[in-house]
From TrEMBL:
<comment type="similarity">
    <text>Belongs to the Rv1128c/1148c/1588c/1702c/1945/3466 family.</text>
</comment>
<dbReference type="InterPro" id="IPR003870">
    <property type="entry name" value="DUF222"/>
</dbReference>
<feature type="domain" description="HNH nuclease">
    <location>
        <begin position="326"/>
        <end position="378"/>
    </location>
</feature>
<dbReference type="GO" id="GO:0003676">
    <property type="term" value="F:nucleic acid binding"/>
</dbReference>
<dbReference type="InterPro" id="IPR003615">
    <property type="entry name" value="HNH_nuc"/>
</dbReference>
<feature type="region of interest" description="Disordered">
    <location>
        <begin position="166"/>
        <end position="185"/>
    </location>
</feature>
<keyword id="KW-0255">Endonuclease</keyword>
<dbReference type="Pfam" id="PF01844">
    <property type="entry name" value="HNH"/>
</dbReference>
<feature type="compositionally biased region" description="Basic and acidic residues">
    <location>
        <begin position="171"/>
        <end position="185"/>
    </location>
</feature>
<dbReference type="InterPro" id="IPR002711">
    <property type="entry name" value="HNH"/>
</dbReference>
<dbReference type="GO" id="GO:0004519">
    <property type="term" value="F:endonuclease activity"/>
</dbReference>
<keyword id="KW-0540">Nuclease</keyword>
<dbReference type="Pfam" id="PF02720">
    <property type="entry name" value="DUF222"/>
</dbReference>
<protein>
    <submittedName>
        <fullName>HNH endonuclease</fullName>
    </submittedName>
</protein>
<dbReference type="GO" id="GO:0008270">
    <property type="term" value="F:zinc ion binding"/>
</dbReference>
<keyword id="KW-0378">Hydrolase</keyword>
Length: 417
């Protein structure tokens, strides 16, 4: 096993710049993963020799639990992973190859963590029982080579393709018996400003709701920069509800909207809207930050009532600020989906972002608009990324310095061949 050195910590970490902080996280993450792989080699060797003979314990997991101060279940998961990634020995002394040698190779380099390793091992378990040794090895190699640059969703997609290759017929579908429809929805505003949504759905409606939410709640794929989706499932489901609501509001047949994405009124001061500092009044019943109001107004998710310093209404949301259905169709064709580099989101999941905000004088025309999904829309408003329109009339994105010190422009090439 090669010797590994810990990266040096700055003496005063609070003085470190964001580029240095990002590099430090990357270095320590790789060290942690390499150390985990090295630990697995030791545990596999203890298993081969026998924990009872070496330390008087009935199993390697039992000894490791005591050694590391872990529960039996926690220690068992670590040992199980170690045995899958490292060669073991049979009772007659012959070597048994690891279950996932390709995955073990990238794990040893610190390029993949325990979560993706466990996901690959679970996928290998789900392969058809009659899969040949050769086909199983090919499948594991594909997953192992994909893992360093893949997120959980990409591995799920890879599993589906592998199952389609190994078992093209699949399981015979079974249609459940429909139940008596029953649907109840209750929506109430709490004192803290949040809204509580409760409901009861019949089996069919519940299944349709779950399918719609799951489709929009999938983790975002890891982009070209290695950015993974860290939201919990409940957070992803909440964001999926917002996407479905935005799509319904934007529907041309939606009563009262005529295809425009405006539904609520937000009262905000002119200076607050321009600076993003302060608060705004939401539909006369609640509040939101001026920063959130600026983001929402970008795609006309609200009808802004802009006030002067003396409290005089300056504007009631003139239609020239709205992205018209015709402009939206042109944006869908030009960008093909979220224009942020590496994003797979389709046009129906996107907002129309004003490159120069209309509060700062930016026009609502195609040269000043770009499609962004909700996550990347917020990133552009609140992060260090920048977007601009290139000379050929297509949007390009300037990464922050810690991503690219020279800040070369990037484009999304996934939506157009």
């Amino acid at each position: 096993m090669s010797e590994t050195f810990l990266p040096e910590l700055p003496q005063e970490l609070w003085r470190a710049g964001k580029l240095e902080l990002a590099h430090g996280v990357q270095q320590f993450l790789q060290v942690i993963r390499m150390a985990s792989a090295g630990l697995g080699q030791f545990l596999a060797e203890i298993e081969n020799r026998g924990a009872k003979d070496l330390y008087g314990h009935g199993s390697t997991a039992s000894w490791f639990a005591e050694m590391a101060g872990l529960s039996r279940g926690e220690a068992g998961a670590v040992v199980k992973r170690a045995l899958a990634l490292n060669p073991t020995r049979a009772l007659d002394g012959t070597e048994v190859p690891p279950v996932a040698p390709a995955t073990a190779a990238v794990a040893a380099q610190g390029l993949v963590g325990d979560e993706r390793i466990d996901q690959i091992l679970e996928i290998l378990k789900r392969l058809p029982a009659d899969t040949s040794v050769e086909d199983r090895a090919v499948a594991e190699k594909i997953l192992g080579e994909l893992a360093p640059n893949a997120g959980p969703r990409q591995l799920v997609e890879a599993e589906a393709k592998l199952l389609g290759w190994l078992d093209p017929d699949g399981n015979e579908p079974k249609d459940p018996e429909p139940k008596e429809p029953r649907r109840e929805i209750t929506l109430e505003r709490r004192k803290d400003g949040f809204w509580k949504l409760t409901g009861l759905l019949d089996d069919e409606t519940g299944a349709r709701t779950a399918a719609a939410l799951e489709a929009h709640a999938q983790p975002r794929p890891v982009d070209e920069f290695g950015q993974a989706d860290l939201r919990m499932k409940c957070e992803r489901m909440g964001d999926a509800w917002v996407e479905l609501l935005d799509m319904a509001i934007a529907c041309p047949d939606q009563p009262g909207t005529s295809g425009y994405r405006t539904l609520v009124h937000v009262t905000v001061g002119l200076e607050e809207l321009r600076s993003g500092l302060g608060t705004a009044c939401l539909d006369f019943v609640g509040t939101m930050t001026a920063r959130e109001a600026r983001l929402a107004a970008c795609d006309c998710l609200m009808l802004p009532v802009v006030m002067s310093g003396s409290g005089e209404p300056l504007d009631m949301g003139r239609l020239r600020r709205f992205v018209t259905p015709g402009q939206r169709r042109a944006l869908n064709i030009r960008d093909g989906g979220c224009a942020f580099p590496g994003c797979h989101r389709r046009p129906k999941n996107c907002h129309a972002h004003h490159i120069e905000h209309w509060a700062d004088g930016g026009p609502t025309d195609l040269r000043n608009l770009v499609l962004l999904c909700g996550f990347h829309h917020r990133l552009i408003h609140h992060g260090d990324w920048e977007v601009r329109m290139a000379a050929d009339g297509l949007p390009e994105f300037i990464p922050p310095q810690y991503r690219d010190p020279l800040r070369h422009p990037w484009r999304n090439t996934l939506h157009h061949v």
